[in-house]
Structure formats: structure tokens, C-alpha cells
Design goal:
Elements (H helix, E strand, L loop, with lengths): L11 E2 L17 E5 L2 E7 L4 H7 L11 H11 L2 E7 L2 E12 L2 E8 L21 E9 L2 E6 L2 H9 L7 E4 L4 E4 L3 H11 L12 E5 L4
Parallel strand pairs: 1-10
Antiparallel strand pairs: 1-7, 2-3, 2-11, 3-4, 4-5, 5-6, 6-7, 7-8, 8-11, 9-10
């Protein structure tokens, strides 16, 4: 599923689609899943290895949380971690869910736990992939299909004036990033969420639930 992140046809957004006010949960996505790429594990973030590692990071647990930390803790309690291994390397992605017009969408972004020696957010976006990747999740029996927004299609439509979406582009390097606000992203996804043209067929991945022995 997340192998698609390395493909140029996906697009990143500088701002998240999902916020504390709109985040939802759906535990039907949790468990072990298989595809032709290998095994994927999806857990609620607080039940993941990241939460276990975070518990061992030194901090001042005696002081009361401030308002921002309380909001962050509520957000983390509703997030998921998607993990998979490729060529011996483990990849982990934070996942936030939102329902728009009855459909399930996700913000995905790479995370790691710091070692407690820095003051960074313990769940931090990796430098190699700035921003969030948006996908639509479709459940069907024992299968789950993840469809990523097609960056090439969006870029063409925006450049040719057929779609309006704030962005930054570098023609020399061929880069394109959505810079629209969270509210603008919600409006965009609500409007085009049923339009199959905006989802890349090249990066859509179907996972099959792995039954326990």
C-alpha cells in the first residue's frame, strides 16, 4: 500500500485534510493484510510499537499538559500506524481518517519516534517526504482497496484551469505540492471524491485480510 508513496504519480499536501475536529475512527482497517508486495500491519497508534517506544522517552510526566498537548493527545488517540517491510527496511506511516459524503479518506505521512535527546515532536514527519498524502479507502468483505489521489492528473487540471486548488510548482524540477488550507482541501475532496479520474490507477492497491492460524 505505502509503496505507492515512492511513485511520482502521488501528490503531497502541505496541510492535513484531517484535524482534531474532523478525525474519525474505523477499526475495520486494523489487523494484518497481504498484497503482492508483502505483509502490512495496521494498529491504533496507541497500541503500536511507536507508543511503546514513546513511553520510554524521557519527559516531565509530573507537569500538567498544556492546551496544545491535550489537543495533540486526543488526536493521537484516534490515529493509526501502518507498517510494512520492504528490502529489509521497516516503513511506518501515521494515518488519520475522515468521512466525507459517506466515504472514508485518509491522511498518511511517515513518522518515527525520537530518542528523547531532542525537543522535536515525538511523532515527526520524516524529512524525505514532506506533507501529507491523501487516499480513499474502500472496504469490501475481506479486502481493502486504497486509492491515492493522482498527482499528474491534478497537476494537469490545475495548470489548464479546469480545477482550482492552491499549489506550488517548480517547472524545472517537475515538482508539485498542494498548498490549499485544510478547509479548502475538504471542499475539494467533497466535490471530487466520487470522481474516479482524480485517483491514480497505477498506485491503487488492494489488500486482503490475513486470517489468524
Amino acid at each position: 500500500m505505502i509503496i505507492a508513496f515512492s511513485l511520482t504519480s502521488c501528490v503531497s499536501s502541505l496541510q492535513p485534510l484531517v484535524t482534531l475536529e474532523t478525525i474519525t475512527t474505523d477499526n475495520s482497517i486494523t489487523g494484518n493484510w497481504t498484497s503482492d508486495k508483502g505483509l502490512y500491519t495496521i494498529k491504533p497508534l496507541l497500541q503500536s510499537d511507536y507508543a511503546k517506544e514513546l513511553a520510554n522517552v524521557p519527559d516531565n510526566k509530573d507537569r500538567p499538559l498544556n492546551e496544545e498537548e491535550i489537543r495533540d493527545s486526543i488526536l493521537l488517540s484516534k490515529m493509526y500506524i501502518i507498517s510494512f517491510t520492504e528490502n529489509g527496511v521497516v516503513y511506518n506511516f501515521g494515518t488519520k481518517l475522515i468521512r466525507l459524503n459517506g466515504q472514508l479518506f485518509a491522511d498518511l505521512y511517515p513518522v518515527y519516534v525520537n530518542d528523547g535527546k531532542s525537543k522535536d515532536d515525538p511523532f515527526k514527519v520524516q524529512d524525505y517526504l514532506p506533507g501529507f498524502t491523501i487516499a480513499r479507502i474502500e472496504m469490501s468483505g475481506p479486502s481493502m482497496t486504497v486509492k491515492f489521489i493522482d498527482g499528474d492528473f491534478i497537476m494537469t487540471q490545475v495548470r489548464e484551469g479546469r480545477m482550482k486548488l492552491k499549489h506550488e510548482a517548480n517547472e524545472l524540477f517537475g515538482t508539485f505540492m498542494i498548498t490549499a488550507s485544510t478547509e479548502e482541501l475538504k471542499q475539494f475532496v467533497s466535490k471530487y471524491g466520487n470522481d474516479e479520474r482524480i485517483f491514480s490507477k497505477n498506485t491503487a492497491v488492494t489488500l486482503t485480510r490475513k486470517l489468524s492460524l
